[in-house]
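To make the argument concrete, we let one protein speak, a sequence paired with a row of structure tokens, as a model reads it:
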Amino acid sequence: MRAKQLTGHETRTHVLVLETGDEAASGLLEYVRSERIGAATISAIGAFSEVVLGYFDVERKEYARIPVREQVEVLTLMGDVALEGAEPRVHVHVVVGRRDGSAYGGHLLEARVRPTLEVVLTEVPGHLQRVMDPQSGLPLIRP
């Protein structure tokens, strides 16, 4: 286990409201880049007109794409922001609910907002760094 205390300075809370037609994954990344955020937690609720989830295939070391081409509720969306090199990287997982009450979940690859996505991004002091882990093939946080 590795650990790093990120408190000691004031945190900043950002509220983002994405609107119908906005692309959620790229919108979040664009925002953290523009605000130069190097460490944060993300949570959100709302809805998508369609979403592409990812399931990481450990053997192939790549994401299998799971398209959901229907209106869904965002039951929970949570993730973090950390630096990969000098660039912020957004890592988000989401659970979406279908009309019949069934749910899908996975890594957020793409999503089209409809009608809204209400995001709370809590920036923490300092930076977290992602480093490529050769065993998993994933950039993992190294505190």
